[in-house]
Amino acid sequence: MVFILAATGATVGLGNIWKFPYLAGEYGGGAFVLVYLLCIAFIGFPLMVAEVAVGRRGRLSPINTLRSLSEIEGGSPRWVWAGGLGVLAGLLIGSFYSVIAGWALAYMFRAASGAFEHVTAQGIASIFNNLITDPERLLAWHTIFMVMTVAVLARGIRSGLERAVKLLVPGLLVMLLVLIGYGASTGYLGQTLFFLFRPDFSSLSFAAVLEALGHAFFTLSLGMGAIMIYGSYLPRQVPIMRTSLLVVLLDTLVALLAGLAIFSIAFAHELPVNSGPGLIFQTLPMAFGKMQAGGVFGGIFFLLLVFAAWTSAIALLEPAVAWLVESLNLQRVRAAVLTGFVAWLLGIVSLLSFSQWAFSFEFAGMQKQHGLFDLFSILASGVLLPLGGLSVVLFTAWVMHRESVLDALGGADGPGFRLWYFLVRYVAPVALVVVFLWVLGVM
Ligand code: PHE
Description:
about 450 residues; mainly alpha; two-stranded antiparallel sheet; 2 strands; about 0% strand; binds phenylalanine
């Protein structure tokens, strides 16, 4: 139970409610969603099982787990680099994650104070623009969120947060259902289902495939060691496959519900679906502004979103903290403060990407408006996480001996294991390499 809660806390976050809808909107819906779901099923789920199994077997921070397991299995000491990559990815994602969580914090107060009541689409757009083009305000929210995260990391006690997750997930599901109910009442649910689930492959670009793949890693917190750490707390007798499946299904459910809610609101009010990172902040307030007791619902929704982001941010920075404690013998408090400070500093770059430092660039035919923020996001989830994931997959399937893997999973050598082993040994690595070659222009 503790593992399920911790892992769900790590996976369900801004990725599901903020990032998935805006990517789906940018890349035209159905085809992107399908690729994302395929990546979850054939790469994400098997990789999550592998990460949990490796973590449980190694029982150290990712870098040292890979070092020690590689030694035992007769592999190269260079596998530690995969752990190092994960630490970097966590810091990079953690930096902009905190900025966006800051937006959610700001919106929590705006919604609760009734700022969205009877507001027009234009009004909403200007509320959003005023926020993101005001670096000082963003810095304040970013700082508050980072301090919240460091406070939990420093104490290394997650029991409070585990209890929070028990309320968080049902709460989020209820709120999303309320929003979907609102969307349905406007009569646009049909169009939304069409948009999300009818793939139009002519709109499927290069960039869309890479981002769908990257987002599968991002939303499941894979390829950077977080799940490995949580796996190291898992008792031996717990079945890894079933537990991971539950976490993956929950995460996917939240994302799809968020998509249904957000797009039905967008269609009902004729708001653009391709407005990028601002999408949820420019659609949801419209619904809260029109609903009965919308201030209360809106306040609760953004509060839940902040919580979801909080439990994820902790997981993002935990690999770095664990490594500092274990390898450099730093006190936990110092390690947490140092990690948080680096991520905070880096976050300022992202924060300025929405105003002073904004520039646009083309990414595989896609116009990106937010300079280094977009670049960080693509670099982290399109490159670092898949590379980290590829390393773990290769390590599990090709470096560890089959018996050790079987033992690490604690299961029997049945059809389930064989199917999974086939996926991690062949399907996932080949798929990842093909995508990389494609992106590099080799294929
Ligand atoms: N999975 C989290 C989300 O969807 C983000 C995250 C990525 C958290 C990697 C931890 C590690 O928001």
